[in-house]
Structures are given as structure tokens and as C-alpha cells.
Amino acid sequence: MAQGTPEDAVAFLRHQHDEIRELFAAVEGETGQSRRDAFEPLVRLLAVHETAEEMVIYPAIRSSGGEGRRIADARTEEEDHAKKVLTDLEKLDPGSAEFEEMFGPFRAAVESHAENEEREAFPLLEQTTDEEQLRRMASALMVAEGIAPTHPHKAAPESAIGNLLVGPFVGMVDRVRDALRDATR
Description:
This protein is mostly helical. It has one domain: Up-down Bundle (Four Helix Bundle (Hemerythrin (Met), subunit A)), CATH 1.20.120. The chain contains six helices and no strands. The protein has helices spanning 9-28, 32-62, 66-90, 97-128, 131-147, 160-183.
């Protein structure tokens, strides 16, 4: 994940989109346990990234009016679908035919989602938010990622309030699960 203090929220998210694209390529380029090892950071980054966007970015976009609500609703719907597929993928052996069948379309959907954000959501955010607010939003994204779940959950909330109420507890459980898994390797 992005390190240090990002310039602004849009730069922070664009950087993460680039990281996500690199992680997808890494997963596709591996087999066996190496593929599992490459898949885990992708799962973690997607989980925290999407939750942070739902907590910080989409409320700001929605507040800009009708077009903002339309964009935020469409991107949130894409994220919800991706979370559900990612939950299913995480349960599969990355070397299985079923994983392979699901992974390609999942990658395409996530990359399309990122492109939609970069084409619609980010320009709207930059037009309706001043530079200082964008810098504060970048800091808020980092905080949100620090409490966000590190795994997707099919029943996870899609709203900022829902994520604030449920996210920290689920994030804590996920992080304990991650630590126990890592300790037994």
C-alpha cells in the first residue's frame, strides 16, 4: 500500500490502482503456492481500498449533486459485486480450474471499475473539492484503511456509516486471522 503522506486523495487512489494492476499481473504470472502468496496481498489491498473509498470518497462525490450520486451509486454497485466475487475466489485453491475461470473476468471487472473511477469519479472530485480538502481526504483514506477489514465480506455494508459501525470490529478480526495464519507458516 502507499507509504508516506500522499499528495492528495486522487493521487493516493491512482497510485493504489496502479498497485492493484501490478498485483493482478503477479497473480497471473505465478502457479502453485507462489500464486497463493501473490494473491494474498491483492485481497488485502482490494478489501481496504474499497472500504476506504466507501467511507471517504463516495460521500464527498454524492454531496456534489445528482451526477455525483449517479457516479457514486454505480461505482459502489461495482464494488459490492467485486467483494462478493473476491470472497468466493479467496475460498478457492488458486491453482484450481474454478479459480482460473473466475479470476480473469474478476480482473477485467476490477480494472473496468478503476477506469470508471479515473474517468468519472476522480475528475468530479477534483472539480468539486479544493486542494486542502483533497489532502485531508488522503489522510482520512489512510486512517480508514487502517481500520478496514483485510478480507472481503459478502454482507459488508456499502455505506460510510455502515463501515464506521462494523468495519473496525471486522477489521480487527481479519487482522488477528491474518496474524495467526502468518504465524503458522
